Description:
The protein is about 15% helix and about 55% strand. By secondary structure, it is of the alpha+beta class. The chain has one domain.
Amino acid sequence: MKRVTVTLLVFSIVFFGASILQAGKPDKYTVNGGGQGPVGFCADFEVWEDVTWKAVVKDFYNKDGEFVREQIHWTVEGVVFNYDDPEYFLPYKNSVYNETFDAETGEDKIAGLWALITVPGYGSIFMDVGLIIFDADFNIIFEAGKHQWWYANVDALCEHLAP
């Protein structure tokens, strides 16, 4: 009988004690959007992108109700194009990645497939995939994977988007 009582007591303390310390459920919402913007510069023209995206966002709070982190699941699709001759374009493969922002440290982590651009019959010419972590000032502090996007390696894009 003592064993059952002690087990129930320990279970109750762990279960109810943990629930007191836990924060409430995260806020969850979805945001859709899109737009155009510059990606890089070629010798004779600019490379722009035209994208649409969906972000499923979860905002987490501590037991005092203070914001502590945000997790975003991104889905992005679109094209990159020659700004001067938009008929020269390349489609994105669907990009899917997760982003986590830590409010205490200001770090922003992105993991997954950020960008993949292929040329039909040729293959992949531009890819950003893996993990990349930025500090609060948007400086890269860690990376693993292939990150052409962040280093503006647009040579292959320029070649395939030139008239």
